[in-house]
Design brief:
Elements lengths: L4 E8 L16 E6 L4 E4 L3 E8 L3 E9 L6 H12 L11 H16 L8 E10 L2 E7 L3 E7 L5 E5 L6 H7 L8 H4 L10 E2 L4 H6 L6 E6 L5 E5 L1 H4 L4 H7 L6 H14 L6 E8 L2
Antiparallel strand pairs: 1-4, 1-13, 2-3, 2-5, 5-6, 6-7, 6-10, 7-11, 8-9, 8-12, 12-13
Helix pairs in contact: 1-2
Length: 278
């Protein structure tokens, strides 16, 4: 019998003070949670989710509207609406094809003169009967958190940041220790999903606009998906220190949320944890 999986999530809009305002604006993040029994799509100023995925199936996604683009909130919400309108996939490795098809359908359904150039990032993870596929475009991230025999937790980033900074790291032009001096300058996106990009432009562009990872889930694994409101607010060392192996995922998620608020809630944030129960 396939063990149940637990899903926990939270979403919060940027603090008004971070925008120099007194009232909150419309959030530009969206998240989607899909199981055999239910489907949720959120774009809320604040919300929490807890549920169970039965039957060995769970599909979770986050998307972040690019603030400098028009209709950023619509971009993230409509992309997830199109993507998660698909019939339940029968295999985890179907996810890359579903994203490519959704990108095409998203263009045909939502491209209008006023939405031309609307853009968002995407991170999506599909679990089917122990097999996992994770994809991302942009700087929304996915980590696999795996408990170790010594009581620690191994963090593995299974997404790839599509940023100028990451390209420079890959080319050896900068070193990770240079991040404090240069990363903020070069965090511009190298790839994201844009209404108005044609199929011809996609075909001729670099093939790595969609990063793909395949793996086998293990009992006790947690998969953490987040828009950049999490990792831009809290450095990697802080995230790892907050996640305690002896605590349940909901408590760890609460700790991340509290730390984000203490940091001033400087950006919209959407975070999902998929727990493979022991």
């Amino acid at each position: 019998m396939t063990p149940p999986m637990h899903i926990h999530a939270f979403q919060q809009a940027i603090a008004p003070a971070a925008l120099g305002r007194t009232r909150a604006g419309a959030p530009q993040d969206a998240l989607a949670i899909q199981t055999v029994a239910e489907r949720h799509l959120w774009q809320k100023p604040q919300g929490h989710f807890a549920g169970v995925a039965e039957g060995g199936f769970a599909w979770v996604s986050v998307a972040d509207g690019v603030a400098s683009s028009p209709c950023a909130a619509l971009a993230s919400r409509s992309l997830l609406q199109v993507l998660h309108a698909s019939a339940l996939p029968q295999a985890a490795n179907a996810l890359p094809g579903l994203v490519r098809r959704a990108r095409h359908d998203w263009q045909s359904r939502h491209l209008r003169p006023r939405t031309q150039g609307a853009a968002c990032t995407l991170a999506s993870l599909l679990h089917v009967q122990g097999q996992v596929c994770a994809v991302n475009c942009g700087d929304s991230r996915i980590w696999r958190l795996r408990p170790q025999a010594d009581g620690s937790v191994q963090w593995l980033q299974i997404s790839r940041d599509h940023t100028l900074w990451q390209q420079m790291l890959d080319a050896g032009e900068v070193q990770p220790e240079d991040a404090a001096d240069y990363a903020s300058i070069y965090q511009g996106l190298a790839h994201c999903l844009v209404l108005g990009d044609s199929d011809e432009e996609e075909a001729s562009a670099d093939a790595d606009w969609l990063h793909i990872w395949h793996g086998q889930a293990a009992l006790g694994d947690c998969y953490l998906l987040a828009t950049d409101g999490l990792h831009d607010s809290l450095p990697a060392a802080r995230l790892q220190a907050l996640w305690q192996a002896q605590q349940p995922p909901q408590a760890n998620l609460d700790a991340l949320h509290a730390a984000y608020r203490q940091a001033g809630a400087p950006d919209d944030i959407s975070v999902i944890v998929l727990e493979i129960q022991k």
